[in-house]
Amino acid sequence: MGEAKEAPRFSGQWIGATQGCTMPAHIWEITQQGRRLTIATRWEDDPQVQRFHGELLPDGTGFTIAGGRFRAVAVGPQHFVVPGWDTNDARGGVGPHYDVVFARPGIAELAARAVYERYRKAAGEL
Fold first, then answer.
1. In this predicted model, what pLDDT tens digit does every residue of 24-35 receive, in sequence order?
2. pLDDT tens digits for 38-49?
3. Fold of 12-122
4. Can you tell me the distance from the alpha carbon of 75 to that of 61, in angstroms, rounded to the nearest whole number?
5. Residues sharing a CB contact under 8 Å with residue 87, sequence separation 6 or more, in sequence order
6. β-pairing, 98-103 with 79-86?
7. What span, in angstroms and rounded, lies between the C-alpha atoms of 31 and 28?
8. Where are the domains of the chain?
9. Closest CA to 69 of 84, 90, 88
10. How far apart are CA 71 and CA 105, in angstroms?
């Protein structure tokens, strides 16, 4: 019998929390086929689902989205960060872009802020 294949790291549901600005949660459902990702996304208070595509990085530690304009970085098995993902589109074009930390639903959501702070410290931002 061969080895069982590990499930793709980013597949499944994620809840995103904008850091530094009060916004509704980003809800993502990611499916992965090889290196390609399909992301169904919506704001928590919006029934409209949008879809976009990403590509897994060669080392599997993250993925690019929006044609490579943004890069998601894994921060452990239950979190990833997309720097600058919350653009000011939802705020009428006013203000900066904000980082979003994504967590698996449930207990991991409660640790999202602490995980984000560790990520920033490791990146030399604190």
1. 899 999 999 999
2. 999 998 989 999
3. Lipocalin (2.40.128)
4. 8
5. 97
6. antiparallel
7. 10
8. 12-122
9. 84
10. 21
Which has the closest alpha carbon to 100: 15, 42, 8, 39? 15
For residue 68 the two structure tokens come to 């490579």
**Locus of tokens 């930390």:** 101
What pLDDT score was predicted for residue 126?
64
Instruction: Name the token pair of 62.
Output: 């993250």
Q: Please state whether beta strands 50-56 and 62-65 pair in parallel, antiparallel, or not at all (unpaired).
A: antiparallel
Residue 4 CA to residue 60 CA, distance in Å, equals 18
Amino acid (1-letter code) at residue 79: H
Determine the Cα–Cα distance for residues 43 and 45; give it in Å rounded to an integer.
Answer: 5
pLDDT of residue 93: 66
List of residues 6+ apart from 25 with CB closer than 8 A:
15, 16, 17, 43, 44
- Higher-scoring residue by pLDDT: 125, 99: 99
Alpha carbon distances (Å) from 77 to 14, 25, 60, 66? 12, 20, 12, 23
At residue 120, the 3 state secondary structure works out as helix
